[in-house]
Amino acid sequence: NARVRYRLSEGRVRGAPLSSYVSVQAETGALYALRSFDYEEVREVGLWVRAEDGGAPALSSNVSVRLVIVDENDNAPQVLYPPAAAAAPGAGWSGVELAPRSAEPGALVAKVVA
Description:
It is a single chain. The protein is mostly beta strands. The protein has two domains: 65 residues, Cadherins (Immunoglobulin-like), CATH 2.60.40.60; 40 residues, no CATH class. The chain is built from no helices and nine strands. Strands 1-6-7 form a three-stranded antiparallel sheet, with no helix packed on it. A two-stranded antiparallel ribbon has the order 2-3. The protein has a two-stranded antiparallel sheet with strand order 4-5. The mean pLDDT is 84.
């Protein structure tokens, strides 16, 4: 009876059912994320996966799984000035901005938010 079935033990993540975050493929035991994880909201998810064979009586076992979420820069820097239209046509902003020789100290050369 080597046919093994896998399933998640129910739990909660930030008040929502665990099954709304991850699923397990019943035949292979592969885990899948059902949504993107935001590091600022959830840094770690703990869950249990149960494996059970088709024997009579059925044999089963549980394994604990810990998903560790890593941070990713999801707020890429944006150039506010100079506007893209001021750059060479089709080139976009090159990351290099030269100030005119006549510019006074404190003159705005580029403005970036990150």
